[in-house]
Design a protein that fits this description.
alpha+beta, Immunoglobulin-like, 5-stranded antiparallel beta sheet, 36 strands, signal, transmembrane helix
C-alpha cells in the first residue's frame, strides 16, 4: 500500500555457500509512474492553437496529488521535436504559439508526480492538427515560352511555378493574370488555375498573383518583349553523371550599355519542344547546375537569357544529352553520282534526331568491291558533311556501300546497303563502238556477196530503168578512135591554111521515131447525177 516501506535484496547459493546483496529500501510513493495522459482534439482557430489533456486513471487513485506535464510538437515532415518544460505548461492545457500557417503538426504530452517522487509517464499518442491559413508570401516565378525558330506559328504562353507550401500558407484557389500594353494599360484580365495561359498578341507585360482564402501575393511583373540589348554567348553544357547538366556562359556588355537584372536558364525537350523548367541566376553568376528528371539518349535544348527591364535576349539554344548512346539508325537517302569512270560523289541525309541518341562526332563509309571480301573504310567524315568523293574506283565495276554514324558512346547501326556501278573508260567505249560498226559492215558485205543475184533482180524490179541500165560511153567508140587517128595523120602531111570559105554544112539525117500507139479513151458515161449538180458549158459561158 502507499506509505508502506519495502525492502528488496538478491540471494545466490553455490558451492561456496549462500551470498546476499545489499537491501534496497523504498516506498511505493517513490516508484510510482503515472499513465500517459489522454489528449483532446486540438482546438484550432484564427487566434491560435490550444492543446488540452486529461489523466483519469491518476485522478482516481491519486486525487490528492497533482501532476506536472510536458509538451512537445513538430511538423509532420520533421524528425526534431520542440519541447515545452513543465514550468511553462499548465496541468490541464496549453496554447501553442509561433506556428507556421497551414502546416500539419503533431503534439504529445507526458506527466510526472507533483511531489517529485516517481517516474515520467510515457508520451501520449501523437495528436495531429493543421494550423489555419494565412495570406501567401513572396512573388510568383513567372516566365514565358518563346517560340522556337522552326515553330514560329505556335502561340506564346505565359508560365509560372506553383508556390510551395511554406510560401502558399494555404490552399491556392486561383491565379489573377493581367496583360498590359506598352503604355501599361490592361488589355486582358483573367482568373485561371495553374500554371500557364496564352499571351495576347498586343500584350507587352504580364503580372500574376496567387490567391487563397486569406489574401494574395504581390503581383509578379514580367516584360514579354524581345530586346536588342546584349545577350549571353559561348554557352556550354556538360553532363555530370547522376547530378544533371552543368551550364556555363559568358557575358560582356558594351561600354555604357544597360546591365541585365538577372539571368534565366531554361531547358526543354527538343523532340516535343516541351518547356520543362527554368531557373534564375543573379548578375555576376556565369554557371548553374540543372537538376531534373533527365532521360538518357534524349536531346535537350538549353538557352540562357539576359533579362532587362525592357525585355530579354537569349543565346542560341545548345543541344545537350544527359547520357549518350549509339545511333539507332544510319544516314538516310544515300545516293551516288558518277564524276568519271574512277570517281563517284556519295551524298546522304543526316540521321533523324530521334535516332541519334547523342551528339554525332563523325560518319563512316564502308565500300565493298566484288573482288574483295572485306570493305574499304573511309573514316572519319565530319558530322556536318553531307557528301563525300570516292576516288580510285575501277571503271565499270559494281560496288556495295553502307554508312554509320558515331557518338561519344560508339558506332551506331548501319544504313541499308546501297548498290551502284561506275562508268566504263572512254577508250573502251570507243573500241566497243568501232568493233560493233566494223562487224555490221562486214556482215553487210557478206550478205551482199551471198545474195547478189537476188539483190540485183530485186533492184531491177523496183528501181527505174535509168538507175540500173548500162549506157555506152562514146569515148570508147571504135569509130571515134579511127577518126581520131586519120585526123592526126592528115594534120602532119598538110600545112595549115586559112579557109577561103566557110566550111560546108554537114548533112543531118533526122530520124523520127514512130509515135506510140494511142490508147483509145473510153466514152464518158453519165449517170444523170451531173445534170442536177454540175453546170453545163452554156451555163458556164453565161456566168463568164
Amino acid at each position: 500500500m502507499l506509505g508502506d516501506l519495502y525492502s528488496v535484496w538478491l540471494e545466490t547459493r553455490g558451492a561456496a555457500g549462500m551470498e546476499a546483496s545489499e537491501k534496497l529500501n523504498f516506498s511505493l510513493d517513490e516508484i510510482v509512474k503515472p499513465p500517459a495522459p489522454d489528449l483532446d482534439p486540438v482546438a484550432v482557430s484564427s487566434s491560435g492553437v490550444t492543446v488540452r489533456w486529461t489523466n483519469p486513471h491518476w485522478s482516481e487513485h491519486f486525487a490528492h496529488q497533482t501532476l506536472d506535464c510536458e509538451l512537445r510538437y513538430k511538423t509532420s515532415k520533421d524528425d526534431v521535436w520542440t519541447c515545452l518544460d513543465a514550468e511553462d505548461v499548465s496541468q490541464e492545457g496549453h496554447e501553442l504559439e509561433d506556428l507556421d500557417p497551414f502546416t500539419l503538426y503533431e503534439v504529445q504530452a507526458r506527466c510526472f508526480p507533483g511531489d517529485g517522487q516517481g517516474f515520467w509517464s510515457e508520451w501520449s499518442p501523437p495528436q495531429p492538427f493543421r494550423t489555419p491559413e494565412a495570406a501567401p508570401l513572396g512573388q510568383l516565378d513567372v516566365w514565358q515560352k518563346v517560340n522556337l525558330p522552326e515553330n514560329p506559328e505556335q502561340k506564346r504562353h505565359l508560365l509560372w511555378k506553383a508556390l510551395d507550401q511554406d510560401t502558399a500558407r494555404g490552399n491556392i484557389l486561383n491565379y489573377a493574370v493581367d496583360f498590359l500594353d506598352n503604355h501599361k494599360t490592361i488589355v486582358a484580365s483573367l482568373v485561371c488555375v495553374c500554371c500557364n495561359v496564352s499571351v495576347p498578341a498586343s500584350a507587352s507585360y504580364a503580372q500574376v498573383s496567387a490567391c487563397n482564402s486569406a489574401g494574395k501575393t504581390p503581383p509578379a511583373i514580367l516584360s514579354l518583349e524581345q530586346t536588342d540589348l546584349p545577350g549571353p554567348w559561348e554557352v556550354r553544357v556538360l553532363p555530370i553523371r547522376s547530378l544533371g547538366l552543368n551550364v556555363t556562359w559568358k557575358f560582356s556588355p558594351s561600354a555604357g550599355a544597360a546591365q541585365p537584372e538577372q539571368y534565366v536558364v531554361e531547358w526543354r525537350e527538343e523532340v516535343s519542344s516541351e518547356l520543362l523548367n527554368w531557373t534564375r541566376r543573379p548578375v555576376g553568376c556565369s554557371t548553374v547546375l540543372l537538376r531534373g528528371d533527365f532521360r538518357p539518349k534524349e536531346p535537350y535544348l538549353v538557352s540562357v537569357y539576359a533579362v532587362y527591364a525592357q525585355g530579354s535576349n537569349s543565346s542560341a539554344p545548345v543541344r545537350a544529352y544527359f547520357q549518350e548512346g549509339v545511333p539507332s539508325a544510319g544516314p538516310h537517302a544515300v545516293q551516288d553520282r558518277s564524276i568519271s569512270s574512277t570517281v563517284s560523289l556519295i551524298s546522304w541525309e543526316e540521321i533523324p534526331l530521334a535516332n541519334r541518341s547523342g551528339l554525332l562526332t563523325h560518319y563512316t563509309i564502308y565500300l565493298k568491291p566484288p573482288t574483295s571480301r572485306s570493305p574499304k573504310v573511309y573514316s572519319p567524315i565530319g558530322a556536318t558533311e553531307r557528301s563525300y568523293t570516292l576516288e580510285g574506283l575501277e571503271p565499270g565495276m559494281p560496288y556495295q556501300l553502307w554508312m554509320t554514324g558515331s557518338t561519344s558512346a560508339g558506332e551506331g547501326i548501319a544504313s541499308p546497303v546501297h548498290h551502284f556501278r561506275t562508268h566504263g573508260a572512254h577508250w573502251q567505249i570507243f573500241v566497243a563502238v568501232l568493233l560493233s560498226v566494223g562487224f555490221l559492215l562486214l556482215l553487210a558485205v557478206v550478205v551482199m556477196l551471198i545474195m547478189r543475184t537476188r539483190v540485183l533482180s530485186f533492184c531491177h524490179k523496183v528501181l527505174p530503168l535509168w538507175c540500173w541500165e548500162r549506157v555506152p560511153d562514146p569515148g570508147h567508140s571504135l569509130v571515134l578512135v579511127k577518126m581520131g587517128v586519120q585526123g592526126a595523120a592528115l594534120a602532119k602531111e598538110a600545112p595549115y591554111q586559112a579557109p577561103a570559105k566557110p566550111p560546108e554544112e554537114t548533112d543531118v539525117l533526122e530520124i523520127t521515131e514512130p509515135a506510140p500507139p494511142q490508147m483509145i479513151q473510153p466514152a464518158p458515161v453519165f449517170s444523170g447525177y451531173e445534170k442536177h449538180f454540175i453546170p453545163t458549158r452554156e451555163e458556164l459561158q453565161r456566168l463568164a
